[in-house]
Amino acid sequence: MGTAKKFYQLSWANRLTTLIDQGIITPAQAKILKQQANNQLLGDQQIENYLTDYHLPQGVAWHYLIDGQQYLAPMVTEEPSVIAASSHGAGLIAQSGGFKTKIGPHILWGQIILEQITNQQQLKQQLLTQKPQLLAVADQAHPSLKKRGGGTRLLRVRSLNDQLLSIDLGIDTQAAMGANMVNSMLEAVAKYLRQQLGSQVLMSILSNLADECLATATCQLPVELLTKGSFSGRQTAKKIALAAHVAQIDPYRAATHNKGIMNGVDAVTIAMGNDWRAIESAAHAYAARDGQYRGLSHWSLSADQQFLQGELTLPLPVGFVGGSIKIVPLVQLNQQLAQIKEVSDLEKLLVCVGLAQNLAALLALVTEGIQRGHMQLQLRSTALAAGAKITEVAEVVQQLQAQGQTDLTSAQLILQKIRKNGDHNDRI
Length: 428
Ligand code: NDP
Known about the structure:
The protein has helices spanning 12-21, 27-36, 40-46, 82-95, 120-129, 131-141, 143-147, 179-197, 233-249, 251-271, 276-287, 329-338, 343-366, 370-385, 390-403, 408-427; strands at residues 58-66, 69-76, 100-103, 107-114, 151-159, 165-172, 201-206, 214-222, 297-301, 307-315. The chain is α+β, with helices and mostly antiparallel strands and 428 residues long. A hairpin with a 5-residue loop joins strand 5 and strand 6. It starts with 11 loop residues before the first helix and ends with a helix. The relative contact order is 0.12. The model has no long low-confidence stretch (mean pLDDT 94). NADPH dihydro-nicotinamide-adenine-dinucleotide phosphate binds at residues 144-145, 148, 174-181, 206, 208, 275, 278, 319, 321-323.
């Protein structure tokens, strides 16, 4: 595209016109982009080459009783069954006394990677001796953080191979996620290292493996609550514990087990204006921390076999301020809707959402299978994909269910039939 180099310099309206002029989109499509643009001025500030706002549905999951307090979980997701499963899992846990949580410090790691090292031992020693100066340089690069009670907390030096060292700075980022702050602090230290020690710095950037920013949720359900169909509660509880164990020993299962956890965690993270890629990356790196990728949650039966006990620990370097949080009005509304007042509340909610989502998925998997609960909602999506209008969806879904074939072609044929009959009836 000839003008693509300077596309970002064009006004929003001219960007759309350029796309039409170059035959990439039609005027009718440009109209759709315009209609979907919520706030062009804000969008232009947030990202480069802004065109429109991409909408996802937002709902809310109920029944989150966490440390004796009620929360709602606003969720942004396109996946049909996530919110229903979340409310269901949370509801079972609420009937059993709710979630208990433990929230650790809010520390993000940053790395400065040094290369071309000749004498590792000597350099390591030198860096550790300089620890107070290195921490001071980092803190001075973002003094407001220290004033708020945060700032540098930890420093360690790790050998990556005989040529490479990582200096890891652990920084308390207070109510912010902290990526930008930490990166500025690291770059200041990198500059100091180059100038004062003549170090060869390869790069400096935060690490998304936030294993000093952990949140844990636990719950305990009486097995009777898990009675389902022909399965006794104890049988179901044992199957859930075994299913969770499979995720500990098999990465193929672990990937899907953790995807189910992240279905809820991502949905709330997005609703809260946070960087869900950072949370995804943190969770999966943490899941592989001992060298094998494993399930993030644990489920077991109590010694007397009366209770199913669940536990989930997640690294949750989220923010209550910073990034786009204060500039997107819907995010502030969601903070209020969820009843969260500080960053630790958000961590609590997220880890509990992950555990509830996991319970609902495992419960369905080991009893009736995952498709039954998914199907009603999934069929609506199939009907819409077949071209059904909102007023036609219910009938298409009903007929799909009745005939037992639920693929897209069947939905299209049903729709044709409904419309044909409709025309016929109109003529009578
Ligand atoms: P910001 O750059 O927005 O910094 C946080 C802001 O919040 C600062 O301006 C700070 O003010 C203000 N603030 C107000 N109250 C508080 C408080 N109580 N505690 C802490 N800060 C407060 O955001 P982050 O540094 O959090 O960076 C997050 C963004 O970085 C995300 O959008 C993420 O997508 C992005 N990012 C992520 C990366 C990754 O994950 N690998 C890499 C790079 C960027 P003051 O300046 O006065 O201290």
